[in-house]
Structure formats: C-alpha cells, structure tokens
Amino acid sequence: MPQSDLVFSSQHVQKVSEEMQAVSQSYEALFTDLGEQILRDIDQEERDSQQVQITLKQIEQALEAFSAYFPSNDKVACQKGCGHCCVFPVKTPPQFIPFIADHIKTTRSDEEIAALKVKMQQNIEERQPPLYRALCPLIDNESACSIYEHRPLACRLFTSPDVQLCLKSVADGSSVSQQPIRYRVYQSATVALQAQLKKNNKPYEQIDFIPALLAELT
Ligand code: SF4
To answer: Measured from the CB, is residue 87 less than 6 Å from ligand 1?
Structure first.
C-alpha cells in the first residue's frame, strides 16, 4: 500500500488551518472590494437611474467572473413564468424607485399607468400580517415580470433549488436556501447603493417597493 510522504501531526493541522483562514479572508474581501468599487463608481453620478445602471453593470461583470472561477453545481428551479416568489414583500434601495418609475412612464400609456396604480393600491391593502404575501401588481398575465430588466435587486438575487420550497415559504414563511455567491454579490451592491446615500446625508434605508413606487407615480 503506497504511503504518503507527509506525516500527520498537530503542526501540520495547524498549518493547513492557517492557510484556510487566509484563503477565507481573501474570499470575504472579494465582496467588500466589489461593494467599494461600486460605491466609487456610483459616487461620480448624481442621477439615481445612472447609479442603478452602473450598479447593474458591475453586478453582471462580478457574476461573470465568479461563475468563471467558482463554478456552481447548485440546482436552480427558477424559470420564466413561475412567479411563485412574486408574492413576497420586496424592499429596495431608494435609487431603484425613480429608475423603475421612469421606465414605466416611458413605456406605458396614461390609461395603463392609471390601471397599474389601482392594482398597486389593492396590493398594499392585501399585504397583511403575519406574512405580508400578495401578488406583485407588476407580474403579467403569463406570470412573468413586466419590468424584468428593471426589477429590484431583491427580485434578482432570489433563486430557489425547488419550487416546493417556494410554495412552502409562501404558505408558512419558511426560508428558501439561496445560491451563496449570487446572494453575496447582490448584497454588496445593495450596501453600496445605501452607502452612497448615507455619505450624501440622504435617507438610505431600504424602502417598501410597491408603496414607494405608487407614491413616485402619483
Ligand atoms: S417586480 Fe417583477 S420580479 Fe419583482 S416581485 Fe414584482 S413581478 Fe416579481
């Protein structure tokens, strides 16, 4: 039987442990660096819509880099026309509200916006404790997001390994495991958008998506 040249010892365990801790710190720093890079880039821009576009571009590039060097075998059940997650309450950094409102104003007629506002008001009234579930008024008749390219970060970061987990979460509030890297990238971007507002003495807390969007459209 071939024998390893390495001899097991507590010193060897300690050495490997220290190496793993160093790698772990480098990995964590990737997400901090991403957030700081986004903050530097968006801080050059006063317009909310531009800040969001810059952030989305940075997210896309980060996800490409991570998927190239950290390939994932995580199962993802999400597909167009599913929409089960579109009943969860959504919070967003404030910059997304004018970004999405501008998109709606430039792509829909006055009648369509008036009808949407009625649905948004209904959604706010339907969203009751304890779980605050109500179908998003921006979902279309085919259970697809009608503002897909403009949807909030919270909608983008959500992934599920199994539709049944989503249905269970809708019913009882249980959690759905997320793809860790994707989740961390979107978290870094969210924190960067908030940090930009905080730095400029503006309200920076995440806000309830539908009530804020309704106010912006009114
Ligand atoms: S904005 Fe789009 S993705 Fe987000 S909850 Fe509404 S329909 Fe779903």
So the answer is: no
Q: What is the pLDDT of residues 57-101, one digit of tens each?
A: 999 999 999 999 998 888 899 999 999 999 999 999 999 999 999
Centre of ligand 1 from the C-alpha of residue 183, in Å: 17
Residue 4 C-alpha to ligand 1 middle, in angstroms? 55
Report residue 1's pLDDT band, with 50, 70 and 90 as the boundaries.
Answer: low
- List the domain boundaries for the chain: 19-217
Pocket test for ligand 1, best of 92, 136, 140, 143 (most atoms within 8 A of CB): 136
Q: Which three-class secondary structure string do you get for the chain?
A: CCCCCCCCCHHHHHHHHHHHHHHHHHHHHHHHHHHHHHHHHHCCCCCHHHHHHHHHHHHHHHHHHHHHHCCCCCCCCCCCCCCHHHHCCCEECCCHHHHHHHHHHHHCCHHHHHHHHHHHHHHHHHCCCCCCCCCCCCECCCCCECCHHHCCHHHHHCCCCCHHHHHHHHHHCCCCCCCHHHHHHHHHHHHHHHHHHHHCCCCCCCEEHHHHHHHHHC
Mutation pick for ligand 1 pocket among 145, 149, 156, 210 (CB with most ligand atoms within 8 Å) = 145
